[in-house]
Amino acid sequence: MKFISALFLLSLLADARPEQAIPYFTNVRDVRVAQAAQQNFFVVDEDLWNHSRPDLGDLRLYDGDSPVQYLLSEQRAGISSEEVEAKILNLGSVSGHTEFDIDAEGLAQYDRIRLRLDTHDFVATASVSGGSAAGKATETELPPSTLYDFTKEQLGSNSQLKLPASTYRVLHVKLSPGIRPEQVKGASISNLREQQASWTKVGSCAAPQQKQRITVIACDVPARVPLNRISFQIAPDKVNFRRTVSVEDVKGVQFASGEITRVRVNRAGTLVTNEELAVNLSGNRGQIIINIDNADNPPLDIIAVQPLSVERRVYFDPPQGKASLKLYYGDEKLSAPVYDYARFFHLADSAAQAQLDPGAHNPLYTGRPDDRPFSERHKGILWIAMLFAVLALAGLALRGLRSQSVS
């Protein structure tokens, strides 16, 4: 019975957190440090995606036999905005122009004004000036903005004024003719802080094909590389269009949609320009199919289509005097590291880009020992132990019956 109990306890032992060791990684690359005395980074490429865990949790930097801590960072666009309602004062018409003041007390600093306008199909110029107090709103002239609404043409709208970072207590807005005072319903001010995303090209797309009103484009993306955006390059002479875009997998299941548009309209001497030529998505899909609905319009002159992945960077501080490190990867059981370096990370303005040499098989690779639970590695022994247990229990039961019959 003691033997059976020991086997049972061994079968319940779970794997501990897997340890890292150089012989457990299938692949290795040299990392050539760009500037030894400052923060470095390298960009994750297709080879790393193809031979690492899907979350890149098994990347490990080594200086000889010593691990080097790092931070894995996604270079996504970042937008943070604080927006508050603003009072509109002194709203009226002066010589055919709608004019009003905005009380900007709600934010210490701002760079956007959003108007709520109850009107459609217009183009207007908004002149803006700022001042320190009521009655002094015209002290400093600020850059003008173009407002528009192309509802009839289905080309979108804009009611936002862009300013340099400002702290004026009061703003004065003067609109070109076409918008009446009663159509101005409200305003808000905001402080927008934007960080641009960085992208890595992945995969390729075939030439567009026409199927009735739909432009169809087939693209191949490496199955293990995350897909985050599709960018379109349209002939520059093609303007004033808006197309619905849908993206499907090879089974015809739609998993993303969006619009591409380019507006270039001149109304009464005012030029309106706007361009959005990318569709955002997410996932790992391999082959994808892009459908562009042209409705009753002629197909767009598409120069190129490019799948993109958000750039991933690995930041690290090189050990003193080191010109190169080793990057090991390819251990499916290894968990993502938990480094103090990542917890207290500060991005240096002077971070230098290190270079990755081509990937290669790790010559020290041996693979992990068989660390499956005892019950998985020795199923035969467990079955034999269970058989002995059944026989032992049967023997005990039979002995008990005999004892009862004798008595």
Largest sheet: 9 strands, antiparallel
Q: Radius of gyration in whole Å, from Cα?
A: 33 Å
Tally of separate domains: 4
Q: Which range does the strand content fall in?
A: over 45%
Number of helices: 5
CATH topology of the largest domain: Jelly Rolls
Could you say which overall geometry the principal axes of the C-alpha atoms support?
elongated
Which class do the helix and strand fractions yield? mainly beta
Which architecture name of the largest domain does CATH use?
Answer: Sandwich
CATH class division of the largest domain: Mainly Beta
Report on the structure:
The protein is mainly beta. The protein folds into four domains: about 20-70 and about 320-360, no CATH class; about 90-195; about 200-310, Jelly Rolls (Sandwich); about 375-405. The chain has five helices and 30 strands. It has helices spanning about 1-10, 45-50, 340-345, 375, 380-405, and strands spanning about 25-30, 40-45, 60-65, 65-70, 70-75, 80-95, 95-105, 110-115, 120-130, 140-150, 155-160, 160-165, 170-175, 185-195, 200, 205, 210, 215-220, 230-235, 240-250, 255-265, 270-275, 280, 285-295, 300-310, 310-315, 325-330, 350-355, 355, 360. The strands form five sheets. A nine-stranded antiparallel beta sheet has the order 11-10-9-13-7-6-14-8-12, with no helix packed on it. Strands 16, 17, 18, 20, 21, 22 and 24 form a seven-stranded antiparallel beta sheet that branches. Helix 1 runs antiparallel to helix 5 (about 380-405). The longest helix has 28 residues, at about 380-405.
